Amino acid sequence: MTRICMIGTGYVGLVSGACMADFGHQVTCVDILPERIADIENGKMPFYEPGLDLLVAKNMGEGHLHFTTDLKAAMDTSDVVFIAVQTPQSEGSGEADLSYIWEVGKQIGAHLDSYKVIVTKSTVPVGTARKLKKIIAESQPTAVDFDMASNPEFLREGSSIEDFMRPDRVVMGTESERAEKLMRDIYRPLFLLDTPIVHCPRIETAELIKYASNSFLAVKISFINEIATLSDKVGADVSQVAKAMGLDRRIGGKFLHAGLGYGGSCFPKDTHAICHIAQENGETASIVEAAIAVNAGLPGRAIDKARQMLPDFQGKTVALLGLAFKPNTDDIRCAGSRQITQSLLDAGATLRVHDPVAMDGFKKLYPDLTYAKSAYDACEGADLAILITEWNQYRQFDFSHLATIMNAPRFLDCRNVYSQDFVAEFGFEYRSFGRPQLNA
After folding, report:
1. Comparing 80-94, 280-294, 305-319, which segment has the lowest mean pLDDT?
2. What pTM value is reported for the model?
3. Is residue 313 within 8 Å of 344, Cβ to Cβ?
4. Cα dihedral sign for 309, 311, 317, 318?
5. Where do the domains of the chain lie, and which CATH numbers do they carry?
6. Is the dihedral of CA 370, 332, 325, 316 positive or negative?
């Protein structure tokens, strides 16, 4: 059993802390916001993640998971201190904003009175741990030995608990045997699952792995969307192209789904950050820059396809189905729905929208939209329905019913959920990404 202090109760910190507690460790999660701590202790999670409330309640009840605003008290009873605060993208430059990291480093140094391993769990640029070590050392009233480590997270929103409990790999960067042992002790339960442990004797390697992994996946997504654009031009079916590509074991089938591309908190931020890291070191991440450009243009492609069905949006009603950047999350950061919404509003459309969990967050950006109680309610009287997020409940539409409640049977499928011949049976004009039009 390892005693752990987790600084930050955002997505990474809360999920990681709850899962580590479930491993049997003693975990204390720290946040500067008393109201957030109170909400969590009362069962109200600060974001939507399936199963997280139950996991937190279980481990609080068993006495493995605690919450506090007192960093010193949490550190006093810990062997390992994880930093899981936000590192948002800076405006303009694209680099990661590390102001929260540096502030936490100063506080850790001020309270450090015995040996600990300080671990960056947040996604941080290469070299951050080295700089942080200096800040912590300079903030100490009395010099106390400590080690730094990097332990990047690879959690997917909507399936983060499963990702933590059954990961593809665990990456840890440590530069002392003592730190490595403590880190291995934390993840010992995963040894029984034969989870690969990638130990990096240089912390910089571990820091780069996270950016390299996310950037490669972003490139893969943007690549298949370029193939979808080409498929539209030549009359090919990108779904079959992607299936055939994915059967090549050198390529694999994951992240080969054409549509609105990537969004959320990780891929957009990490791709821009790795480009900035390259620039700082006199290099150019040309492939990643191209992936960013392709992804940025995908909501515009959706609008172009919508105009093929509805040339003039002025005075028309459009139903948007799904607002989150992906299913099983309420995250609307960098979601395609935001650009599509703004474009339609600028063109004079009236919007009726629905999402199972993301509407509250969207209301803060667009309070004057009509927020429907169901997908069918959103489509009532619509001249066009646009499927943006592939929630499971949107995969089984009764199109015969949709045809009776919509003003006109037009359906834009931005995630290629449905087959064209199926939707056409109900009299719908249908568009998707990278698949030939019937009778074209």
Report:
1. 80-94
2. 0.92
3. yes
4. positive
5. 3-201 (3.40.50.720), 211-296 (1.10.1040.10), 298-431 (3.40.50.720)
6. positive
Going from the C-alpha of 127 to that of each of 219, 301, 309, 361, the distances in angstroms are 24, 38, 51, 34
pLDDT at 264 over 50: yes
What CA–CA distance (Å, rounded) separates 271 from 278? 11
Is-contact 276 95, C-beta < 8 A?
yes
* Distance from C-alpha of 261 to C-alpha of 229, rounded to nearest angstrom: 12
Which whole-number Å values give the CA distances from 366 to 111, 342, 351, 360, in the listed order? 43, 9, 10, 10
DSSP code of residue 90? P
Edge-to-edge strands, sheet with 3-7: 65-68, 26-30, 3-7, 80-83, 117-120, 147-150, 170-174, 197-200
**Per-residue model confidence as pLDDT tens digits over 7-54:** 999 999 999 999 999 999 999 999 999 999 999 999 999 999 999 999
Q: Which of 19, 266, 334, 414 is catalytic?
A: 266
**How many separate helices (H) and strands (E) can be counted in the chain?**
19, 14
Tens-digit pLDDT profile for residues 276-310:
999 999 999 999 999 999 999 999 999 999 999 99
Please say whether the beta carbons of 276 and 292 come within 8 A. Answer: no
Nearest to 356 by CA among 334, 329, 381, 396: 329
Specify the amino acid at residue 219.
Answer: V
SS (H, E, C) 153-175: CCCCCCCHHHHHHCCCCEEEEEC
Between CA 136 and CA 132 the distance in angstroms is: 6
Torsion on CA atoms 65, 83, 171, 114, rounded to nearest 10:
-80
Gap between the Cα atoms of 196 and 140, Å rounded: 36
Q: Give 223-258 as a DSSP string.
A: HHHHHHHHHHHHT--HHHHHHHHHTSTTT-STT---
CA geometry: angle at 330 spanning 290 and 324, to 5°? 45
Q: What is the DSSP pairing of strand 147-150 with strand 170-174?
A: antiparallel
- Say whether 414 is catalytic: no
Taking the C-alpha atoms of residue 147 and residue 193, their distance in angstroms, rounded to an integer, is 28
d(CA 80, CA 25): 11
CA 413, CA 437: separation in Å to the nearest integer? 12
